[in-house]
Amino acid sequence: MVSLATSESSRPRPSSACRSRSTPGRGDGDRGAAGGAGPVTFYIEWHTLGSACSTMAHLVSLRVHGTLERLPSLKVLLIEGGIAWLPGTLWRLDTNRRALRSDTPWLEHKPSEVAREQVRFSTQPLEHTDGHDKLLWEMLEAAGARDVLCFASDYPHWDFDDPAFMLKAAARGLARARPAQERRGALWRAPRPRRHMSGWHDVGSLADLERDGHVVARVEGREVGVVAVGGELRGVRNRCPHRGGLLCLGTVEHRVIGVPGGYDLTDQLVLRCPWHGWEFDPVTGACLDDPALRVAVYPAKDVGERVSLTYEVVPSTL
Ligand code: FES
Q1: Does the C-beta of 245 come closer than 6 Å to ligand 1?
Q2: Average pLDDT value for the chain
Q3: What's the CA-to-centroid distance between 229 and ligand 1, angstroms?
């Protein structure tokens, strides 16, 4: 465990005992500035924001700076920060990593996955949901609650959680929440070949492709495009599986990798969605940032001055 804090003025120094790798350390959140609105005035402000915001900040910082990946044996326990914010923060972090991956290319794995491996969170203070317990536990289940939550009572603080209540509530809540993996598995199905849509279809002119980097056309009711990838032509459905962005209007770029503070271009060419920046393998259609997503890809070729594609399914997409 490491010593954590959020402000220079109140930053606790790791004790000499904590400097040993095997000895846990601890740190409190900043009691002066609870968020981005300046110093707080009332205790309720700090109690609502302070511990939660500082816990979120530590989680994101540890992850984004690559600390957890560089120190795979490091275990971090974040306590007294509440937990209802956890799913949203991890989802947001995963989403932003895909969109902004050239900013931190050293993040090879989804932030939520690494956090799940190395970070644990205390249950206290469990948020009171005003009758929405099912929703809370479903969200926590999606964030890997079974693996990452540790019981804490925080006794004798005034807002401690009674173990007789807390342990029962957690067991009941998690038992009712369906595993997110099951839901997710049901969402994606392998594309099937379309029998009646074989043959080659004209998509545009080679001159337009060379000028714009893509041509797009509606073919048999489906919007598709052709992009140039390292001298090869690739047909791609013009609909990003993330949020429906016009994927063919994106850019073909070299994928960036790196370590904290350093960037490297790889030889791998990717198609980058113009909406949120998620990257796709233009050959297989696989989303490089989310294995559950895939875009349909098609064989394409130039015929004289024209470009065409076929809807015959590329074997690797099956
Ligand atoms: S990355 Fe969001 S729509 Fe494509």
Answers
A1: yes
A2: 81
A3: 19
Q: Average pLDDT in the 90-107 region? A: 88
pLDDT at res. 16: 39
For Cα atoms 122, 107, 263, give the angle at the middle one, nearest 5 degrees.
Answer: 145
Beta strands in the chain (DSSP E): 76-78, 119-122, 149-150, 200-205, 214-219, 222-229, 232-237, 251-259, 262-272, 279-280, 297-303, 306-310
List, for residues 258-315, the tens digit of each pLDDT value. 888 789 999 999 999 998 888 999 999 999 988 889 999 999 999 999 999 998 754 5
Query: Does 240 contact ligand 1 (Cβ within 6 A)?
Result: yes
Overall CATH class of domain 2-182 = alpha beta
How far apart are alpha carbons 302 and 280 in whole angstroms? 22
Does position 189 have pLDDT exceeding 80, yes or no? no
Q: What is the pTM of this model?
A: 0.67
Instruction: Name the β-bridge partners of 318.
Output: none
Distance in Å, CA 189 to ligand 1 centroid: 19
Ligand 1 pocket, mutate which of 92, 97, 243, 248 (most atoms under 8 A from CB)? 243
Helix (H, G, I), strand (E, B) or coil at 145: helix
From the CB of 276, is ligand 1 less than 6 Å away? yes
In the chain, domain spans: 2-182, 201-317
β pairing state of 232-237 and 297-303 = antiparallel
The CATH number of 201-317 is: 2.102.10.10
Atom of ligand 1 nearest to the CA of 244: 3
